[in-house]
Amino acid sequence: MAEPESTVINTHVKQKDPSEALVIAVTTRAIFNLEEEHKLYLEKGKEEYARHQQANQDKPLPPGTAFAFIQAAQYVNEKILESNPAEKNLFDILVLSNNSPESGIRIINSAKHYGLEISKFCFVSDEDSTLYLKSHGVKLFLSADRTDVCNALRRGVSSALVFQQEVQATSAPLRVVFDGDAVLFSDETDQVFREQGLEGAVQYERAMEAVPMGEGPLKAFAMHLGKMRKKFSQDKSPIRTYLVTARGGRDMGVRAIKTLQEWGLAIDEAFFMDGAPKGPILAQIQPHIFFDDGLHNIQGAQNVGVPSAWVPSCC
Prior knowledge:
single chain; alpha/beta; about 40% helix
């Protein structure tokens, strides 16, 4: 696989082994707020956009939706290395951009301004930048472009779409919230629900209670996160993970819990909402990122200022 047109190695950051690290790729519009610049690009074209970026290369971009998540991942690295300076199972962050290297200087300068430990900046000329995810060992891809996300999911890379929003500053530890069906788990029960309604889905779950659910698009990322989390006792872990699902705990929660146990994936807290809105519980958790396949749940999270990432099941 060919390398991106230009990869800028950040020499101020220790480079990680992609076979050991949890590599996360974020696009520039996911980590920084580039909505004004993107509008300029759509209205005036690539050349005008490039001129604007070069003219403002020393003006830091404001944080975007995934910014706090990346900062919290950096905090996890610090805690892991405090515990074991030789540890290689760390977060490794790379930025993927369709900018030219010249107009991408502003991206690099913005990362330096905020002290973000981004190991590589990949400036890709191909229309489909997801071609390069596997060659970099990417375990999670966050983008503000739905086509990118769908392409990544088709390539078997855990991926989600972030919507630009105002995000509150949140404190450590890293808190990640997963939805269940069609995110951590497969969408098999969702399909039964669509075809047979709630009662049919409940009967299906009871009949299949002893059979673990299939894996969803974010299982691989969640498992790697769980592996990092196991390096610490629960009370001292710099990572906290949550399951917040529309399932009801009494009728449909048992199989979810048994599946997590079968996978060996420890979750700090699980909330079975039985169809109730997720916004209030998310407001209490204050996660750095929330993954869900339902746009109504994403909207509810955004309404309470929670950084959200949509996992589309309809690519």
